[in-house]
Structures are given as C-alpha cells and as structure tokens.
Design brief:
Blueprint (H helix, E strand, L loop, with lengths): L45 E2 L9 E5 L4 E8 L3 E6 L10 H8 L6 E8 L9 H7 L13 E10 L2 E2 L5 H12 L6 E3 L7 H10 L4 E6 L12 E5 L2 E12 L7 E10 L3 E8 L5 H11 L16 E14 L1 E2 L5 E2 L2 E5 L14
Parallel strand pairs: 1-10, 6-8
Antiparallel strand pairs: 2-9, 3-4, 3-5, 5-6, 6-7, 9-10, 11-12, 11-14, 12-13, 14-17, 15-16
EC number: 6.5.1.1
GO biological process, one term: DNA recombination
Catalytic activity: ATP + (deoxyribonucleotide)n-3'-hydroxyl + 5'-phospho-(deoxyribonucleotide)m = (deoxyribonucleotide)n+m + AMP + diphosphate
C-alpha cells in the first residue's frame, strides 16, 4: 500500500518522499512498449453525502479549477487536453513548459489547473479571469497543475495498476518540484475529520479514492467527492430582464441533464454577479435568443436562449420538487465543459 502523505499546514503543504520503484527506461528497446492512447476518458468522482471509512481509501483536497490531461507524446511534444478533449496547450504555457522540464519521453498526467488565492485555496473565478472569461483567448501563465494520477509513463500504460502504484510512480516523477507542477497531496487522516477541517478552511470539499482500484473512465464509485458547499455546472436556458437590476440581468434560468439528451428545469439564480459580470453575461446570452424555451416552461418577462452556455452554481440544498435552494452564481464555464452538466437522477 502506498505511504500516506500528511497535510501539515494547508492544502499546498510540502510532502515527504519515500523509496520508490524505478521508472521504465524507454531506451530499452528490447521491452515491448504499450501503445500510447491519443486521449483518455477521465475517471470522475461520484457525489457522496459522507466520506467512506476504511484503510483502502485515500483522501485529497477537492480542487476547484479545470480538469486537464497533460500528454507528453513520444518526441516530447506536449498537449494539454480538457475533459472534453479540447487542446488548451497554448492557454497554459507555464504548465506546458514545466512538464517538458520533467524529462520524460512519454507520459499522461491527470490533474486540475487552478489559481490559488492568498490562503492557498483554489479560486475558480480567478482562474476564469486569468483565461479571459468564457471564450477568452488569454493564457493563464500563473496557473498551477495539481497532479493526482499518472496514466502512462515512458512506454507503459499504467491504467490497470492500482492507484497506490500509480501514485508511487507519480511521486517519483514529480518529486519536490518547485514549479507549476504540484502533487495533489494524499492526507493521513480519517475522512470525517479531514472533511471537517476542509470545510473550516473554506475549501470546496474532499475527494476519496480507492487505493486498490485501477483507472476507469466515468463515475464507477472508485472516486467519491464529498462537498462542504454544493457546487455544480448547469446550462442556461433563459434570463429574466430587469431594468433595475445590475446589467439588466434579473435572474438566470437553469437546467440540468436528465438522461443523455433531455433537460429538466432546476430553478434560477439572481445573486453572485456584479455589474461587470451581469452586463457581460446578458450581452453574451443576447446572441443566442430563441422564440420558445428549450423545455416546456411558462414564464413572463423571460428571454429564452439556446441551451449551450454552462455556468457554475453554488447552492445550499435541493427543494422537494427538484429546485436549487439558495443558489449563487460562481462563474461561466467554457463550451468544453458541456459534458460536465449536472445529471439529475430519475
């Protein structure tokens, strides 16, 4: 079993290294190399109400940023792919540069790009601002990559290995790098006290992962997310215009996925955006106006839009009829995140 890593002073504390197995040397041509996948569908965390119990579980901070797969292709060409498969290499130049400095011949690293606030916690709004907002063309040179898994290394596909082995190789690869590439630390603690500490520190929550599990795409339950405050991605289906509200934006009307293609209304959000953000959102939405709602709804003073703008919403709970309670706007996500729209259960 992999040695646990202790969170000593915060979510970005230093870790101690332990003896690790040797990496495969790609120059050993006698060895058969595994084909390198062009893209890997990510393993996703299943939402849970409380942390699991048992020595087979490891815990990490839940980072609030953009999920990325960083590829070092044979020949050391770097590609940084979003969860949806979009190439964002140019948007994270520092991460791309520092990955090259690791000196690997080929690798796929799974992680989260974040911008940290003054407390050392990830700030999604700051990351989005660094990238220039939705559809922005700026690069986030100050973003960090918190790496939490290693899927391929120097000609070897690692996905069938248990997480404990993949983590040991990841630690060996990254070491104590003082660059934009950081290790998402594994915490030596029980799940419940760690969740309590994370919530007291104002973090989004924690992730629990089975140490004995291989890497599988989708939400199979090997990874769990336990949140302090609920936050999910929804799609905008319309907005209420208000001449007295900031930027003329009274409320965004939101929908979640139901099944693979259907949408279901989950309520609205009217707080969390200031004058500048509200104006930018309304201007963007006005380019997607449609005459009728995408799902059957009867509302007055609503401008309906094509459901293709994903937004991150923080909320307290769900009502009995499936609506968001105490919702607050966090930020607008990219088209690349449409695959992350929250799916309601039947």
């Amino acid at each position: 079993m992999c040695a646990r890593r202790v969170l000593r002073s915060g979510p970005v504390a230093e870790i101690a290294r332990s003896p690790l197995p040797k990496r495969r040397d790609a120059r050993q041509r006698a060895l058969t190399l595994d084909p390198m996948p062009d893209r890997v569908e990510p393993c996703l965390a299943l939402l849970a109400s409380k942390p699991p119990v048992g020595d087979q579980w490891a815990y990490e901070v839940k980072w609030d940023g953009y999920r990325l797969a960083v590829h070092v292709d044979p020949g050391r060409r770097v590609r940084i792919l979003t969860r949806g498969g979009f190439d964002w290499t140019l948007r994270f130049p520092t991460i791309a540069h520092d990955i090259r400095e690791l000196g690997v011949d080929s690798a796929i690293i799974d992680g989260e790009a974040v911008v940290l606030d003054e407390r050392g916690a990830s700030d999604f709004g700051a990351l989005q601002q660094a990238l220039g907002g939705r559809g922005g063309k700026r690069s986030a040179a100050g973003a960090l990559l918190y790496a939490f898994d290693l899927l391929y290394l120097d000609g070897r596909d690692l996905r069938a290995l248990p997480l404990s082995e993949r983590r040991r190789l990841l630690i060996d690869l990254i070491g104590k790098q003082h660059s934009s590439i950081r290790l998402s630390e594994e915490v030596d603690a029980e799940g419940a006290p760690f969740l309590k500490l994370a919530c007291e520190m104002g973090l989004e929550g924690i992730i629990a992962k089975r140490l004995d599990a291989p890497y599988r795409a989708g939400r199979g339950g090997e990874w769990l997310k336990i949140k302090c405050v609920q936050s999910e991605t929804f799609v905008v289906i319309g907005y209420e215009f208000s001449a007295s509200a900031l930027g003329g934006l009274g409320r965004l009307l939101l929908a979640a996925r139901k099944g693979s293609t259907d949408l279901v209304y989950v309520g609205g959000v009217g707080t969390g955006f200031g004058q500048k953000a509200a104006t930018a959102i309304r201007k963007l939405l006005d380019g997607f106006i449609i005459p009728k709602p995408a799902i059957p709804l009867k509302r007055s003073n609503v401008r309906w839009v094509t459901p293709m703008i994903p937004v991150e919403i923080q909320f307290r709970a769900w009502t009995n009829d499936g609506k968001l309670r105490h919702a607050s706007y966090k930020g607008m996500r990219e088209d690349a995140d449409m695959a992350d729209i929250f799916v309601v259960s039947d």
